Amino acid sequence: MTDPTGGALDGIRLLDLSTQPGQYAGRLLADLGADTIKVEPPGGDAMRRVGPFEGDVAGPETSLTWRYFNANKRSVTCNLDLPAGQRLLRELARDADVVIESYGPSYMESRGVGFEALRAVRPDLVYVSISGFGREGPHAGWQATELIAQAASGVLTLSGDPAGAPQMLGANQACITASLSAAQGALLAVFHKERTGEGQLVEVSMQEALAIAQETAMQQWDFQRTSRERQGEIPTLPGLGAYATRDGYVYSMVGGPAGASWSELVDWLIEEGAGGELVAGHEAAFRALNMATAVQALRNPVKAAEFGALMPIARETLAAFFATRASREIYEEGQRRRLLIGMVSTPKELMESPQLRARDWRLPVGGDGAAADLPGPPYRLSATPATVRRAAPAIGEHNREVWLEEVGIAPEEFAALVAEGAI
Amino acid sequence: MTSQGGGKRPLDGIRVADFSWFGAGPIVGRTLADFGAEVVRVESEYKIDALRLTQPVPPDRPATYNTGGFFNNFNAGKHSFLLNMNAEGARAVAYRLVERSDVFLTNHTPRVVAKWGVDYPSLRAVNPRIIAAYQPMQGSTGPHKDFIGFGAVLTPVSGLSHLSGDPARPPIGVGTNYPDFTLNPGHTVTAILAALRHRERTGAGQMVELAQIESVAATLGPALLDYTVNGRVATRTGNRSPGMAPHGVFRCRDQARSHPAAVGQDPDVRERWIAIAVRDDDDWAALCAAAPGSAFAGDARFATFAGRKRHEDALESAIAAWTAGEEAAALQERLQGAGVPAHLVQDAEDMMDHDAHLRARGYYRRLEHPETGLSAYDGPVVGLGETPGDLRWAAPLFGEHTYEVATRILGYSDDEVSELVAAGVLA
């Protein structure tokens, strides 16, 4: 066995047979201390072929997607299309606490390594199965990808500008969310198993995992029988939405449900000599601007016309003010004034954020070699922090260590399995 | 209110002192309750959870603290306990609850945490075994720790907006307060469960801090490494995917609305869209076979992945011209029948009334509630075969369990409860 990890999940062994939808779950549990073994097909996991790549040179060890989501895992190869490979996985499962797979509802079963087969060798096994639509139901066999899961779960229809197509949430959020459901399910089942000795099958549907992110759309239909549709930019009031800056964008919610009022924004404009026509002609009206006063004005036809004429002035004044300043300056000064403004951070701006720098948000990669730091963890546990004990592995890097030393396969049999293509 | 389902649950015997509000915190408590924890949701008239005042509500009843579906969905299966933390004497009640709990949870700001005296050192002094989980937006340290925001501001600040949507348009976000619903609660539950497991083995409690900005940023790893390793600043790519083509969302034949439009919506037209993701040449061949007579089937430019990428604009136009004449729901059946990843871009009406799969699985739970009637709730985030978990009851009425919690859990006598009510503590 491997050395104690010191993490909260020390002593748990996880076999990670997942690809895109589950790889983040394995990474989370590995960082929390589980001994995590990635079981790859002999040519390597499909995620090794997904970019971006270091230096833009594609290769199984240069994929940054692979490197991020598979850090802290060991790698063995095992060809599940061969009976010998299937037998190897059953051997490996004897010492496993958790299996996570995302091959689809019947793949593992058809190769004799499904839940029932592995439970036969490890009765208290926790087996987590991730698929687009779950293991049962009329769409259980349907093909799913990130985009398909977003479409099926009701989040895609809410995103984007009404004048164009619905727009995907970035950075594979359906896969990330499926992984979070898998991590929660695995840990609930581990908790139960360690109390009772009982293992079980855990099922993740990518569609269902993401469905709660419809926000209020579900209840709006349930109660009111109207559909919530994508709004795009909120067109109602100036001060709400994305504004271009000198070097990017900010996202402003001034006049929205929290933070300082338009009056504070007017003060800021005046202090900077940027009030222009807005302040000269209509200062009082803009100081009072918020959702409630807007609705009130719209109730009275005469006031509504006046109000409508003011809106472009405010929008243009604000746009001009923001356009001459840097995003970070607007964000930090706006927040200092308690105005609800965020900057639209790029990856660069995020990694250079004074906040994340002050919090030292990064994960040093332990072990051999001089691997670069990884971006930091999603949470901080005071007694058992997340750690990265090794960089993402090369294909089959731990074949000898695991198959020979831990599973106990004889050297001559190991050589035969390699020759046969099972390892 | 009736208990749904029965049997063993993994978190039986675990008690949660849930001092959270809005979405990111309460969903944590909801998941723990689904899987057996006894969750005491601490609320007050003097710092009301704004979701109790928020749409949607049933149109045919007076709106009260109890009729908001947004609130109710995140708080089903909990006990509602009124405690005004700004009242003198409230802190002792809170500490008594923490003393008798396994998990403490809050997403209030660091300023409120300090003001209420529920910081980790204080709670640990009360109960060394407590697992105390905090969800400050920016963390409890650093120059931005007191910055204000909620999901719609966190999405841009954390980097997700920049990576979402149409590259030709400003980064308008994803249309919701997205991180509140899966990323922040899902990460927090994961950390709490790991900490509970550690406590089972060692007896030691600990603090969990989830800075919401870090919780979102951690999901953007490849784009962040592209910057730190390659110096490249990745940007949003809309509905395209670097490894697949075609990969997009295409408009199908419009439908008439089955129900009246909401304010601002087209009264007659219900747009219908389909998502299609062609992973490889086999998928492409299957798509072409399912679209005889289309302009793209048989077009030699599109025969290989490289060709489809090179001519992606033309490819997408040809597919859109074909889908425009198709009925979306029938098309998804046909394409999935041919093995092509495709799905209707569903709205809530599709999911709740027409998605035969979700209905067969019983994903949406319908629970009786005294003020909203039979109402829908999202099911649990994951399915467990032996210890399935489910909503135990509908959302609690505001303060419904105040007396029960004060007496059964906290052990106050009826006289003490009266005094606490009279003093404005249980309020």
Give a verbal description of the structure.
- The complex is a heterodimer of chains A (423) and B (427).
- Chain A starts with 12 loop residues before the first strand and ends with a helix.
- With 423 residues, chain A is an alpha/beta fold.
- Chain A is 41% helix and 12% strand.
- Chain A is built from 18 helices and twelve strands.
- The longest helix of chain A is centred in the middle third of the chain and has 24 residues, at 173-196.
- In chain A, the strands form three sheets. A six-stranded parallel sheet of chain A has the order 3-2-1-4-5-6, sandwiched between helices. A three-stranded antiparallel sheet of chain A has the order 7-8-9.
- Chain A has helices at 23-31, 64-69, 83-93, 107-110, 115-121, 146-152, 173-196, 206-211, 217-224, 262-271, 276-287, 291-299, 301-323, 327-336, 347-351, 354-358, 399-406, 411-420, and strands at 13-17, 35-40, 73-77, 98-101, 126-131, 200-205, 240-244, 249-253, 341-343, 362-363, 374-375, 380-381.
- The mean pLDDT of chain A is 94.
- In chain B, 35% of the residues lie in helices and 13% in strands.
- In chain B, the strands form four sheets. A six-stranded parallel sheet of chain B has the order 3-2-1-4-5-6, with helices on both faces. A three-stranded antiparallel sheet of chain B has the order 7-10-11, with helices on one face.
- Chain B has 17 helices and 14 strands.
- Chain B is elongated.
- The two termini of chain B are 23 Å apart.
- Chain B is an alpha/beta fold and 427 residues long.
- At the A-B interface, helix 2, helix 6, helix 7, strand 6 and helix 8 of A face helix 2, helix 6, helix 7, strand 6 and helix 8 of B.
- Strand 12 (380-381) of chain A pairs antiparallel with strand 6 of chain B, so a sheet runs across the interface.
